[in-house]
Design goal:
single chain; 205 residues; alpha/beta; Nucleotidyltransferase, domain 5; 2 domains; 5-stranded mixed sheet; 6 helices; globular; metal ion binding; Type III pantothenate kinase
Length: 205
């Protein structure tokens, strides 16, 4: 079974237990001959895939009535996997979604590490610091780096922890954010696991 999670910059494949990525700008999907079950948030790539009969769009098998119209399919699939809890996808943007007993309760989008770092740097070069994930978020900071880090991390941490639910972390920066969500579970394959659950519900393989 070949699964593919297609984002804005890459095709992320799972082939059995092996996962790998291909650059979205250079990869040619027509070179794949086997059947591929995919989700895609990249509209340009989605148009390329439409005429390829061996590429199966799993978003067509999801009950979207539980979600809002413009939510990304990757977020939906992650929610379908966890069933109950909060899933944080820490990538170029950070998405936070809450699910209670299989019901989607809502979520929000937060700037990713690079985006927020660039925002501070664009304000002033003296604010060009890396974020300190080791600082004590229970104390007000007394230096510039920690002040920036606190302003970014404390808001996110406080909102997520206020719900007192299981937290699942995924995405490229999951290990960094695990430093402020110490009880969180890191699951890099939460989207792929959700895809498998959708396939099982829809009885497709």
């Amino acid at each position: 079974m070949l699964l593919c999670d297609i984002g804005n910059t890459s095709f992320h494949f799972l082939d059995g237990d092996e996962d790998y990525k291909k650059d979205a700008k250079t990869f040619e999907p027509s070179t794949v001959q086997e059947r591929v079950f995919y989700i895609c948030v990249n509209p340009d790539v989605k148009n390329i895939l439409k005429p390829l009969k061996n590429w199966v769009d799993l978003s067509l098998h999801v009950d979207m009535s539980k979600y809002y119209e413009t939510i990304g399919i990757d977020r939906v699939i992650a929610c379908e996997d966890i069933g109950d809890g909060i899933v944080i996808d820490a990538g170029s943007a950070i998405t936070v979604d809450l699910v209670k007993s299989g019901k989607y309760e809502g979520g929000f989008i937060y700037p990713g590490l690079m985006a927020m770092s660039n925002a501070y740097k664009n304000i002033s070069t003296v604010l060009d610091y890396s974020f300190n994930f080791e600082l004590d978020l229970d104390k007000m900071p007394k230096n510039s780096r920690d002040s920036i880090s606190y302003g970014y991390l404390k808001t996110l941490q406080s909102e997520v922890l206020s719900h007192n639910m299981k937290i699942v972390l995924t995405g490229g920066d999951a290990k960094e954010f695990a430093k402020i969500f110490t009880e969180a579970i890191i699951d890099e394959r939460v989207v792929f696991n959700g895809m498998k659950k959708i396939m099982k519900k829809a009885n497709i393989c």
